[in-house]
Write a structure and sequence with these properties.
Shape: globular
CATH architecture of the largest domain: Alpha-Beta Horseshoe
Structural class: alpha/beta
CATH class of the largest domain: Alpha Beta
CATH superfamily of the largest domain: tm_1862 like domain
Mean pLDDT: 95
Radius of gyration: 23 Å
Distance between the termini: 62 Å
Oligomer: single chain
Bound molecules: 5'-deoxyadenosine, iron/sulfur cluster
Helix content: 25-40%
Number of strands: 21
Strand order of the largest sheet: 2-1-3-4-5-6
Length: about 450
């Protein structure tokens, strides 16, 4: 049926969604279909969607309208929606607007070939069932985009936390973890293909638990696979950071000294409304423990401005928490109410738009100046940078990341993509470091030479 057909996938949202698109690549290519890089040359267009905030959804709706115009000139074109918006779009296509032909939720990708045959037979095809087991463990993702140096490996799916603002438990379902052996096998394959960096992914990555293996023990096992592959993880929850995990990160050269630790707010009363299971004080204690246990650790966070009933004092608490922690990076958002969440059912989205905007701007402005100061301190330091590819500014320069996840640009000289290079930082902005390359190293030898200034 679908043989030799060309498909194009456009992905929105989090890294998990990008990883899912690679799973879909694999499923479709097994059916004999070929991926293409632009929608115009595709027979089937998939949009892998995100529901996290209103504006993420609006972008998708607009894009689907553009594809509808394309459909008018090409009657044989099929448009499918994947991912977190599936359920919403299902209601929509079954009603009236003929935007899409098939709708597939995050746990139903194996069903895409069947659904495509239904479409060929002239029916609308929908599968938005969530699963308690699906982890796509046996499917090797096909990484058609990406730099060939760093890859994402999904280790668990779903979320059981039920933060009151968040739609993810409803779009992606319950938490479930992938068997260790299948994770190790996928990393082995990446190793054979020459990848140097792997980010373990999950909506709640450090809640990983399969049989008796927890996240700390999984990290221990992956870090032993090859000392020359370095590992990151995203996105964790503050509730699952046992000391042995921090100690392991500190001890292993190939476990990056970078932790994303979403605070959401710096106010204990707000955290309670958000149904986050920690207080400001407990969060700050964990941060101190991280800084003490992992010298030089770099921290990043997620913050929401203007959640229900937020007072000026609670907002000030967020600003003060952020200035105490001095994050190297923050993802900052204005609260956007989502249907089905506890906040939608129980609270009122009552912080006026202009107040949300003003608070968000204050948060962003403060964060930018913290980053600028943090990055000024980087000047004169030396870092091991994994070169990811040619810099956007100049083809005579390479761009890569430090172990602490900071972007560094440096002269190419004789270095290549995939090399670990010691770089001395000479200049910085709030977002980027610029440096002078000194020598290529292996990660294992780096553990024996002290290069930090
Ligand atoms: N409004 C704004 N931001 C949100 N996030 C999750 N839900 C919402 C929402 N309804 C943010 C949180 C989360 C990140 C992925 O997105 O900060 O950690
Ligand atoms: Fe967006 Fe959340 Fe779904 Fe990721 S899991 S695509 S962030 S709604």
């Amino acid at each position: 049926m679908s043989e030799q057909k060309k498909f194009y996938i456009e992905t929105y949202g989090c890294q998990m969604n990008f990883a899912d698109s690679e799973v879909v690549n694999s499923i479709l290519m097994k059916e004999g279909m070929n991926p293409v890089q632009e929608p115009e040359s595709a027979d089937i267009i998939f949009v892998n969607t995100c529901s996290i905030r209103e504006n993420a959804e609006s972008r998708v709706w607009n894009r689907l309208k553009e594809f509808r115009s394309l459909k008018k000139t090409r009657r044989d074109l099929t448009v499918g929606v994947l991912g977190c918006m599936a359920e919403r779009i299902r209601d929509n296509i079954l009603d009236r607007e003929k935007l899409v032909d098939l709708v597939v939720g995050p746990d139903a990708y194996r069903d895409i070939p069947n659904l495509l045959s239904e479409v060929e037979d002239g029916r609308k095809a929908v599968n938005v069932l969530l699963s308690l087991e699906e982890t796509y463990a046996d499917i090797s993702p096909v990484r058609t985009s990406g730099n060939g140096v760093s890859a994402f490996v999904s280790i668990m799916r779903g979320c059981d936390n039920m933060c009151s603002f968040c739609v993810v438990p409803f779009t992606r379902g319950r938490e479930r973890s992938r068997p260790v052996q299948s994770i190790l096998r996928e990393i082995e394959e990446l190793n054979e293909q020459g990848y140097k960096e792997v980010t373990l992914l999950g909506q709640n990555v450090n809640s990983y638990k399969h049989d008796s293996v927890d996240f700390t023990s999984l990290m221990e096992q992956v870090s032993r696979l090859n000392p020359e592959i370095r590992f990151r993880f995203s996105s964790p929850h503050p509730k699952d950071f046992p000391l042995p995990l921090l100690t392991l990160i500190a001890e292993r050269t190939n476990l990056c000294n970078y932790i994303h630790i979403p605070a959401q707010s710096g106010s204990s009363s707000m955290l309670e409304r958000m149904r986050r299971p920690y207080t400001r004080e407990e969060y700050l204690e964990l941060i101190s423990l991280m800084k003490k246990t992992i010298p030089g650790v770099s921290l990043s966070t997620d913050i929401i401005a203007g959640f229900c009933d937020e007072t000026e004092e609670e907002h000030q608490d967020t600003l003060s928490l952020m200035s105490i922690v001095e994050y190297d990076l923050a993802y900052m958002f204005a609260y956007s109410e989502r249907e089905r969440t506890l906040a939608h059912r129980k609270f009122e989205d009552n912080v006026p738009e202009e107040v949300k905007k003003r608070r968000l701007t204050e948060i962003i402005t403060q964060q930018m100046s913290v980053q600028l100061e943090n990055n000024k301190k980087e000047i004169g330091r030396r870092h091991v940078v994994l070169a990811e590819g040619t810099s956007k500014r100049s083809d005579q320069q390479l761009s890569g990341r430090t172990d602490t996840n900071k972007v560094v640009v440096f002269d190419k000289e004789n270095y290549s993509k995939g090399d670990y290079v010691i770089v001395e930082i000479t200049e910085s902005t709030s977002a980027t470091l610029i440096g002078k390359p000194l020598q290529a190293v292996t990660l294992s030898e780096f553990s024996h030479i002290a290069v930090y200034a």
